[in-house]
TrEMBL record, chains A, B:
Xref: SUPFAM superfamilies: Nudix, Winged helix' DNA-binding domain
CDD domains xref list: NUDIX_NadM_like
Gene3D superfamilies the UniProt entry points to: Nucleoside Triphosphate Pyrophosphohydrolase, Winged helix-like DNA-binding domain superfamily/Winged helix DNA-binding domain
Protein's recorded name: NUDIX domain-containing protein
Domain of life of the source: Bacteria
Xref: InterPro entries: NUDIX_hydrolase-like_dom_sf (IPR015797), NUDIX_hydrolase_dom (IPR000086), WH-like_DNA-bd_sf (IPR036388), WH_DNA-bd_sf (IPR036390), WHD_NrtR (IPR054105)
Domain Nudix hydrolase: 17-160
Native source species: Pedobacter duraquae
PANTHER family: ADP-RIBOSE PYROPHOSPHATASE, SLR1690 PROTEIN
Length: 245, 245
């Protein structure tokens, strides 16, 4: 990375304003056209991509910091956020700021907390920051080269999402307001990376008691109109807080 | 808390040796006589209890730090450790070190990473440290008053353990080497805090394919001798890395 006066200027602000040694990285999942995607940034002059991330300010909680960082990069608010892991290996980012001396904020050792978020991809406006030239949705099964340990962080988030899906409902925020059963199943299959039996899927999803069947099926199309569902928000929230064995 | 010269001495060592702002708290679960217990310390002169915890040294990874802290308090090695959450609220420990000035290491704002561990309670020797007068197993459903946010940390660990149990096998390390099906079911019921149907339990646990039935049933007792099982270590590890939907 080339030396940049703006980074030195920001370094001074962070020493003043932020908690040392702690950073936050967000894995933002979106679902579109049967593809599970993740929101990534590319820094100017770099080939590899990175997660939207940032630092913890002295006057905010970790969760508020994660929400702020996510909002800055995506405009998304009031989203489902889950702290899924902590990444505290030695030398995580050692060589990245080689051009700077050791007083640079960014050259500290950082322990980063991983938060994943599920968002409605169509309702999000990816926004580059001053150091990046691209901010895009990229398919999670074809990740580009990633900076530092960000590839590992995405994989860990995906595992955690899959585990969550095995015992909690998922879909709210990832699907449009109304959807068909095959569309919901397709979301599950995409996240799990495997085909599911239709009957089993129907049975398991119904036991959560989170779906409301609409009176009107979807219009248009040559075939029999498929039934439409929407989530029952209250039941959905209840199911999120329960453990199913 | 009263002022203690030893804490001031340690503060200087930590400023030198440890990463600022990051701490680790361990929720160590053990299972004994149908009770799920957690390993807690009580500081000298305090009424409330706390989790075994500590700081991250500059030359170790987060996971190594968690293992070291756990080893110091319990003598347990090579245990299952899981980072289940990050606790970064404002003012988590604000008033605790009031007697000291702000140069004290312990008075920083700390973001703490929660790790839970599952151990064989009979193989562990709880060890007090120089600041505590008690280190004991206490039942998780009758927790005493806890310092700072440690009560919340235990509850979050328990929720995470319950969720893990809904989609991964649990029992290895928590049960003796051989056990009966009712003993395994009792462990699950204790963690979940609810009764389970015997047939359903048997069916679900068998699909993991992790149990080996021994040729010899348990000896002694007036009733029909119950079948004994042990875990198939290899299958158990495989099941841990899979997602069951």
């Amino acid at each position: 990375m080339k030396k940049d006066d703006r980074i030195i200027e920001l370094s001074k602000i962070f020493w003043e304003k932020a908690v040392p040694s702690v950073s936050i990285d967000c894995v933002v999942f979106g679902f579109h056209n049967d593809s599970l995607n993740v929101l990534l940034l590319r820094m100017k002059g770099e080939e590899a991509w990175m997660l939207p991330g940032g630092y913890l300010f002295k006057d905010e909680s970790m969760e508020d910091a994660a929400r702020r960082i996510l909002y800055e990069r995506s405009g998304a608010e009031r989203i489902f956020l889950h702290a899924f892991g902590i990444f505290g290996g030695l030398n995580r980012s050692e060589s990245f700021f080689d051009a700077y001396d050791d007083t640079l904020w960014h050259k500290q050792r950082f322990v980063t907390a991983g938060y994943y978020a599920l968002v409605d991809q169509t309702a999000v406006t990816p926004a580059i920051d001053e150091f990046s030239d691209r901010c895009e949705w990229l398919p999670v099964d074809q990740l580009p080269a990633m900076l530092m340990d960000h590839g590992l962080i995405v994989q860990t988030a995906l595992t955690s999402l899959r585990e969550q899906l095995s015992h909690k409902p998922i879909g709210y925020n990832l699907l449009p307001e109304t959807f068909t059963m095959p569309e919901l199943q397709s979301l599950y299959e995409t996240i799990l990376g495997e085909q599911l039996n239709r009957g089993n899927f129907y049975r398991k999803i119904m036991r959560y008691n989170i779906l409301i069947k609409l009176d009107e099926p979807r219009k248009g199309g040559a075939h029999k109109a498929p039934n439409l569902y929407r989530f029952d928000e209250e039941q959905y929230k209840k199911a999120l807080s329960q453990v199913y064995w």
